[in-house]
Amino acid sequence: MAIADSLRAGVIGVGSMGQHHARVYEELPDAELVGVADADADRANEVAARQGVEAYPRDALLGAVDLASIAVPTEYHYELARACIERGVDVLVEEPFVADPEQGRTLLELADERDALIGVGHVERYNPAVAAAREVLADAEIVAADARRLGPPLDRDIADSAVLDLMIHDIDVILSLVGKEIETVNALGTRENRYIDAQMGFADSTVASLTASRVTQKKVRELSITAADCWITVDYLDQSVEVHRGSSPEYIERDGEVRYRHEGIVERPLVESGEPLGRELAAFLRAVRERRPPDVSAADGLAALQVAERIEELASRSRDRPNTQPTSIHR
């Protein structure tokens, strides 16, 4: 594919997420938003008019672009990604990558045969706070990670579960930070898996706990990392990071009373401002221009999907187990 000064971009699916892909492509200096496509013609026309481009039928759009974002329900990801690859169009697929891991493996093989690039939209990788935490952890020995992604019930229908819609972001971030194979996975779910707790154990003995909820009356997006020499907290919403070091607990005797005191150093690294989606699409454009694997590759998306599906399976099994009698503890 010959690369022009501006890469020609299109968006397939311009609903709640895809419309923002269209907006960001229009804003990026090295991209030309050519047009959009959507099964809902009225929505396609509305978003196209807002961005000053055309609404295309899908096949016509693929004939006019160098790359495309796919932001449709997960069940259609495979079909549309395959169509892009077969037309020589590099593709960024919103997460989850595909509905079935076997579909993901097929796309990986096809992309390799056609020299096409596939990126997966795990946007939290591009959160500036995650980037700042990654720098702090560059030479650190990670002991454990804890992620919480909580919120109230949605006011719109969504096919994906709390694991595949919410927790999968944290699975991907933690996999990228730890960089080791997973050896064990456990999970418990309740309220039809709208609230799920999961644990992962890695080959290097690192452990991780993850919670995803659609029944919590507060929106929370937090990650904490325990390392050998520090404790790091990340707030995805505020895009802030704190690094706690040198914790020193002690007991102090004063005026005949013993009191507890805990001191430590709290660092607040500089976090660059920026919209994660803008950083994600800019990174994908660079990968296309340089013909190198995207930062979040199809293999990364497939790895996160496989872990998420295992968690979903275990959480569903936990709901189906017969109730056991509680253990009485006598004192």
Q: What would you say the CATH architecture of the largest domain is?
A: 2-Layer Sandwich
Radius of gyration: 23 Å
* Main β sheet profile: 8 strands, mixed
What is the count of β-strands? 14
Q: List SSEs in N-to-C order.
A: EHEHEHEHEHEHEHEEEEEEEHH
CATH superfamily of the largest domain: Dihydrodipicolinate Reductase, domain 2
General form: globular
Give the termini distance in whole angstroms: 75 Å
CATH class of the largest domain equals: Alpha Beta
Q: Tell me the helix content.
A: 25-40%
**Which strand-content bin applies to the residues?**
25-35%
Question: Which secondary structure elements does this structure contain, and how are they paired or packed?
Answer:
Elements: E1 7-12, H1 18-27, E2 31-37, H2 41-51, E3 54-55, H3 58-62, E4 67-70, H4 77-86, E5 90-94, H5 101-114, E6 118-121, H6 128-136, E7 142-150, H7 162-178, E8 182-190, E9 195-202, E10 207-213, E11 220-227, E12 231-235, E13 240-254, E14 257-267, H8 276-290, H9 298-320
Parallel strand pairs: 1-2, 1-4, 2-3, 4-5, 5-6, 7-10
Antiparallel strand pairs: 7-11, 8-9, 9-10, 11-12, 12-13, 13-14
How would you characterize the overall build of this protein?
With 331 residues, the chain is α/β, with parallel strands linked by helices. It folds into two domains: 7-116, NAD(P)-binding Rossmann-like Domain (Rossmann fold, 3-Layer(aba) Sandwich); 125-275 and 309-319, Dihydrodipicolinate Reductase, domain 2. Helices cover 34% and strands 30% of the residues. It contains nine helices and 14 strands. The protein has helices spanning 18-27, 41-51, 58-62, 77-86, 101-114, 128-136, 162-178, 276-290, 298-320; strands at 7-12, 31-37, 54-55, 67-70, 90-94, 118-121, 142-150, 182-190, 195-202, 207-213, 220-227, 231-235, 240-254, 257-267. Strands 8-9-10-7-11-12-13-14 form an eight-stranded mixed sheet. Strand 4 (67-70), helix 4 (77-86) and strand 5 form a beta-alpha-beta unit. Helix 4 runs parallel beside helix 5, helix 5 (101-114) runs antiparallel to helix 9 and helix 7 (162-178) packs across helix 9. The longest helix has 23 residues, at 298-320.
